[in-house]
Amino acid sequence: MSSKISALILTDEFSTNEVLKLFVSEYDNVDLLEQITNYSDILDKLSTVSGNSIFIVDISTNKQAKLDLILKVSQQCKNCKVLALSDNPSVDLIIQIMRAGAREFVPIPIIKNELFEAINKIITQFEEPKPQLNKCKIISVFSNKGGIGKTSIATNLALELSKLTKENVALIDLNFQMGDITTFLDLKPSFNISYMLENIDKINETFLLSTLEKYKNSSLYVLADPPYFKQADNIHPKQIAKLFNTLKDTFSYIVIDAEASFDGKNIAALDNSDIILLVTVANLPALRNTQRCLELFDKLGYDKDKTKIIVNRYMENDEIKEADIEKVLSKQIFWKIPNNYFAIMSAINKGVPVSILNSSTNVAQSYKALAQHISDNLLRENMVKKFENILNNQ
Predict the structure, then answer these.
(1) CATH code at 69?
(2) CA–CA gap between residue 167 and residue 271 (Å, rounded)
């Protein structure tokens, strides 16, 4: 990159400030801006800088206020990227920093080579402003028993992931005979999965974002089930796998409302999933079905961590307790969604997600927290390897 990049430093520690100024001054392609300590002035300055800029911020002190500032800078200053620092690094802190919008992280005390490496990566991001997404995660919501709420979970989870991450999320209805996602979201899509598969070789990002049905003003895109039963007969497992590989380049998350069956198309979806949310309820028939699913997944060679148990319509005073469920399944419960019949049915009948109808209900809060938990877990897995060496060297 031939043009200079501006850099603004924010730290409350004099020694950290002096080290940063010294190191940054040695980097040929970066010019230091005059230091500013008022957060509003920092935002104004970075918004008006001509060309690209780097905001180097030490969050060792006033952490929450600086995280809020990082979020505002990342949202409002399109030509600025954030490099964060801390003298007490941890994986959870790094997740908070990255979620706020920082692109790189360097621990304190600062090592020049590590700082320069982080700056180099940011400069590369300026040169390639739209890298291909290669960390897409596919999440299948599955049960081999109908009527226990998996479509509601898939729909609300997908929307909450899009709201939380602000990234593109695809919601796919693989219930080829009687899909309900369009009903749950009150959508009348012009295209469906059959059309998409017929045109699989023409697909690119523009095609996807214009063909999938966007849900209101969100970053959630819906791919509906075929409107006619016979169309599903022409869909083959290999096409499902090819579709997922194509969607990965455009979406950060793909949430699948899987059919309650073990046919080839459904197995292809489960095979290609990073996570299977296996939904059950606290009654004996459902738990027996869940046992059978786990046994089949074991025969299919799925890693045990791939399958997560979701208990829907959970009540603390149920006859079958949490410990009983875990004993029967020989597996820990990943998440419990509280029973709130009236909130869920009201949302379904109005064709809106429960969080839009009433975000304060216990079930809406649970969906939001589930999305946060899944996103954080996936982000943590990516971050642990990336920062393992750095944290171990401190």
Answers:
(1) 3.40.50.2300
(2) 24
Residue 118 host element (H or E):
helix 112-127
Whole-angstrom Cα distance, residue 174 to residue 252? 19
One domain, residues 347 and 283: yes
Q: Cα(354)–Cα(224) distance, rounded to whole angstroms? A: 20
The predicted structure's pLDDT at residue 387: 59
At 222-265, the pLDDT tens digits run 988 766 555 556 677 888 888 888 888 889 999 999 988 888 88
Q: Do 194 and 74 belong to one domain?
A: no
Tokens read off for 327? 């004993």
Residue 53: beta bridge partners?
6, 80
| SS3 (DSSP) at 206 | helix
Cα 86 from Cα 62, distance rounded (Å): 11
Query: With contact defined as beta carbons under 8 Å apart, do 57 and 31 qualify?
Result: no
Question: Is residue 139 pLDDT above 90, yes or no?
Answer: yes
Residues 6 or more apart whose CB falls under 8 angstroms from that of 394 comprise 89, 107
Measure the N-to-C terminal CA separation of the chain; round to a whole number of Å: 32
pTM for this entry: 0.72
Q: Is 237 helix (H, G, I), strand (E, B) or coil?
A: helix
Task: Judge whether 100 and 70 are in contact, CB under 8 Å.
Answer: yes
131 pLDDT band (50/70/90 cuts)? very low
Backbone angles phi, psi at 56, to 5 degrees: -100, 110
Cβ contact 57:71 at 8 Å: no
Tokens 């579709």 sit at which residue?
A: 243
The CA–CA distances, whole Å, from 333 to 153, 220, 284, 314, 327 equal 16, 27, 16, 11, 10
Q: What is the reported pLDDT for 177? A: 67
φ, ψ (nearest 5 deg) of residue 364: -65, -40
Written as one letter, the residue type at 52 is N
- 393 domain residue, yes or no: no
Containing structural domain, residue 40:
5-131
* CA dist., res. 56 & res. 71, Å (int): 13
Same domain? For 157 and 123 the reply is no
pLDDT at 125: 80
Task: Assign residue 257 the CATH number of its domain.
Answer: 3.40.50.300
What's 124's DSSP letter? H
